[in-house]
From TrEMBL:
GO MF: hydrolase activity
InterPro entries noted in UniProt: I/U_nuclsd_hydro_CS, Inosine/uridine_hydrolase_dom, IUNH, Ribo_hydro-like
Record-given protein name: Nucleoside hydrolase
Residue ranges annotated for the Inosine/uridine-preferring nucleoside hydrolase domain, each copy included: 4-301
The keyword Lipoprotein is assigned to this record: no
Length: 310
């Protein structure tokens, strides 16, 4: 199996990504590290545990990482995800424990312990934990197989400001460290996540599975899509974070190109922007595989097959 660490700020779409990963026997989830983002850390770590219990995988190790971005105050997104971060279904308070180790220490220790080049980091929230891990132990950079991240946007623009996507906007300094690290990066920007919409027909199909997990997924996504449907008038909202896991399972559903991505951290107008050299107009080195296209039907088939297994 592919060994992964999921770094996340659940979030309804994070929750679906976690379920997808836990459902696959081709992925080995070494641990889940929570970060502050959509809601504060005490909620994101609890939400991660709620989802593991929903998937009936209470043995999954969940760690709490950073409470706030590397250099800035935390910006949250209750206006999208609700007060709990996981509004929609009513999920019980988790029984499974939070691991005592700090999430950043877990990332560092695991990377130093496991053979180099084997671990993929799946990042679904602000990059604070990864930035702190790189700062604490720069030697881990060479040991990470790759980072597959949901973050950024280029032709599509931003969803927090006209220029910036939420995950990068919350902690641009951490994102800058990650993009400068030399670690192979696969980036799922809004340009691709806005192509996988939770339409009524797709949710109805998941509902036919009829299990508690399927019901919870539908309730999570019905809540989540309200914001985007209202704002953009689309049928359904973008299922951002599950694209990260889907890429690991079926990369042939996606396409993109290698290019240079730099992070703006200073301009008040564009801070958190992922400046993407899609047209190769500079000679700056390629540092990311930037995904742009997705087979949306194939993506929802994959999701359906996996939710059915839980
Ligand atoms: C990203 O921000 C969060 O609100 C979602 O969970 C996703 O990771 C989309 O911009
Ligand atoms: Ca997220």
């Amino acid at each position: 199996p592919i060994k992964i660490i999921i770094d996340t700020d659940p979030g309804q779409d994070d929750a679906v990504a976690i379920l997808l990963a836990l459902a696959s026997e081709r992925l080995e989830v070494l641990g889940i590290t929570a970060v502050a983002g959509n809601v504060p850390l005490d909620l994101t770590e609890k939400n991660a545990r709620k989802i593991c219990e929903l998937a009936r995988k209470p043995g999954t190790r969940v760690y709490a990482g950073a409470k706030s971005p590397m250099q800035r105050p935390l910006v949250t997104a209750e206006y999208v995800h609700g007060k709990t971060g996981l509004d929609g279904p009513s999920l019980p308070e988790p029984d499974m424990p939070l691991q005592p180790l700090h999430g950043v220490d877990f990332i560092v220790e695991t990377l130093l312990r496991e053979p180099a080049g084997e671990i993929t980091l799946c990042t679904l929230g602000p990059l604070t934990n990864i930035g702190l891990a790189l700062q604490q132990a720069p030697q881990i950079a060479d040991r990470i197989k790759q980072i597959v991240m949901m973050g950024g946007g280029f032709f599509e623009g931003g969803n927090v400001t006209p220029a910036a996507e939420f995950n990068i906007y919350v902690d641009p300094e951490a994102a800058r460290l990650v993009f400068a690290s030399g670690i192979p990066i696969v980036m799922m920007p809004l340009d691709v996540t806005h192509k996988v919409l939770t339409t009524r027909a797709r949710l109805d199909r998941i509902a036919t599975i009829g299990t508690p997990v399927a019901r919870a997924v539908v309730e999570l996504l019905e809540f989540f899509e309200r914001y985007d449907e209202h704002k953009y008038g689309t049928d359904g909202g973008p299922l951002h974070d599950p694209t990260v896991i889907a890429w690991l399972l079926r990369p042939e559903l996606f396409s993109g190109r290698y290019c240079n991505v730099e992070i703006e951290t200073e301009s008040p107008l564009t801070e958190g922007m992922t400046v993407t050299d899609w047209w190769q107009v500079t000679d700056r080195p390629h540092n990311a595989l930037v995904i742009h296209e997705v087979n949306a039907e194939g993506f929802f088939d994959l999701l359906f097959e996996h939710i059915r297994k839980l």
